User: Fold Vacuolar protein sorting-associated protein 41 homolog from Huso huso.
Amino acid sequence: MFSRCTMAEVEEQGRKSSEESSDDSEEEENEEEPKLKYERLTNGVTEILQKDAASCMTVHDKFLALGTHFGKVFLLDIQGNVTQKFDISPVKINQISLDDSGEHLGICSEDGKVQVFGLYTREGFHENFDCPIKIVALHPQFGRSSSKQFVTGGSKLQLYERNWLNRWKTLTLHEGEGTITNIKWRANLIAWANSVGVKIYDISTRQRITNVLRDNASLRPDMYPCSLCWKDSTTLVIGWGTSVKICAVKERDPTEVRDLPSRYVEIVSAFDTEFYISGLGPLGDQLVVLYYVKEISDETDKEFRARPRLDIIQPLPEACEEISSDALTVRHFQENECRDYGLEHSEGESLFYIISPKDIVVAKERDQDDHIDWLLDKKKYEEALMAAEISFKNIKRHEVQKIGIAYINHLVEKGEYDVAARKCQKVLGKNMELWENEVYRFKTIGQLKAISQYLPRGDLRLRPAIYEMILHEFLKSDFEGFATLIREWPGDLYNNMTVVQAVRDHLKNDPNNGTLLTTLAELYTYDQRYDRALKIYLQLRHKDVYQLIHKHNLFSSIEDKIVLLMDFDKEKAVDMLLDNEDKISIDRVVEELKDRPELLHVYLHKLFKRDQHKGQKYHEKQISLYAEYDRPNLLPFLRDSTHCPLEKALEICQQRNFVVETVFLLSRMGNSRRALQMIMEELHDVDKAIEFAKEQDDAELWEDLISYSIDKPPFITGLLNNIGTHVDPILLIHRIKEDMEIPSLRDSLVKILQDYNLQILLREGCKKILVADSLSLLKKMQRTQMRGVRVDEENICEACHAPILPTDTAKVFNVVVFHCRHMFHKDCLPSPSTIPAVQFCNICSAKRRGPGSAIMEI
Assistant:
């Protein structure tokens, strides 16, 4: 199995084994989340590396193959357990190669042995060469290919393949440029590195298509070997020393081929790194790079070997961007050289194996669980909870609710009780046990108020005791908060009688506390004890008393409380009483308000406004009420009421000297002259007098008005300005004394003349319109009468009532049709000797002789 460990743990283990090293100082904590996680490969690997040292390793999706310095090859499962062991050589295994199927294995060793065989059969290639073979690579489709191709690299690069006789054929692809240290075969392309640079060979065309020279020729190729990896079938990444080059294999334009290879290589990216490269691996469009690191000691000023680094970088055309960087404390890293490290990756999933002589560490991309682990470790609980909620289907080691509870605990520890309580609603969901545990915890820390507003009150209900406990807590110290909860919480959450008793106990010490009394009324209302709730509302003059009465139909309970309701809010009380006359009669209300006439007036006034006939028997009483409390509305009442006794009203108005109302009553009773006299003598208002005379339209009143005004110049001016359309102004002018000085007389006379001219113009205009309309209608009537009249057997003679047409139309007959459409037999009309020469319709002439009755003879 893997030994799971964070980088901090790996570094701590390295510190214990390197106490004398100068680089064991602690690094500052990096707040940026790592991209990879690390596990040490253990089980069988641990035992192997205790006695031996790893020299190389290759990776397949199904298993691992590990070569050692003592010439052994071990096949391991992905947990590091040994499944097979091969004793190949007494010396170091240089390279192991697998085909894509994982069924064939190629091995080479320092003593020149090369073995290629199937894991399920030992038939294959077995050869001993007289020089070390550094590298071997099988064709990716070795198992499926009939030619069974593979290449070896030592002092020269050789291609082996079986011919049609099943014999091995050897072809030297390259030699003379030093030892070949690395080979990577992908599809039909073979890339290899020697002391000079990197070559790529196309096995399908048997052509070498490029030569990429190494940049730093001063580095020993055996100490700083070249690292190769194919990102895909046409992209090769080369790492050598501190230089990285990304090469793209492209097809050449057929018109340019001639003697050139059909493919060529373009370097799409080239940049330098800070440290020496020990291995490369693809990660999407990024690269994973294993660095061999040397640093200078601050104390001795000497160079020492530091922990290797595994970086993720984003290649750019001429540089790279560092995405993440991790220092790895592998065992005995102080003793390792650049050539001792290796990086292998699994094609099936993003797994990277860091190989060193005494340690193998597996790096893999962090999943959502790892991301949540990191957030929790950094106490970023809110982000962890959000990440878990978004990816709840993909996480395996975490539960959303447990993360949420950890977040709540963290908030409580920080003292953010309100935020913690709010999160409970989302995190605890419908788990009643968790809810009750949280409530008791908040009680323990004295923060029940914080969680009160978030308690479940819908489908999920806690035990009533929980809610009662919180209500009692509020009742001790926060009456307003207690009242708020009573209003917001459904009454069936708790035992209503228990809470009522607790409130009553508190009211014994503070009987006038309005908040508690209001809350008690609400509790009584929920308990359907409306009479008690109504009593409290009335005592407090609370605005909700009317809603309570309406909602629960408490009209029978308020018959003796009408005065209290009116004292509290007259408008609302009257509207309620009038809207519910069927429940509280008008007579009952009047009886209750008889000792409060000012309230009675308000009620009867609104009743009269709604319906002038419903309270007609109280109209006589209303006269005195209006006179006493609301004189402005007395005159409108007298005008609109048809049930008001006028004599009684006149008596009251005269007693109180209400002149305007008295004038109205006198005029209504027919005493217009007395009314006009009051206007002139008591109000001294000529305009009102003139308006009154216009309303009555009585010549005698105008005469009285003129007689009264003839010795009062201001009144004469008013009459001259207003009577022109009702009385002939000459009558007034003739009666004015010659020496009397009248204000604005000239203006008044001018106005009279203008009014007269206006009347003349109006009459002339009306005459013209009338004549034009008459002429138009006469022409229209003439055109209508000149039209033909249909006479058929359905028409009858208006005299004898026989059909107008004879049955035998061959005989001569005479019919008279008048313009009024009445028809007669000519014989049925009086003879010409007895009537004038121009005949008229007998029927129409009897009603009214007119132009429509003239004769039209047929």
In short: The longest strand covers residues 263-272. The two ends are 131 Å apart (CA to CA).
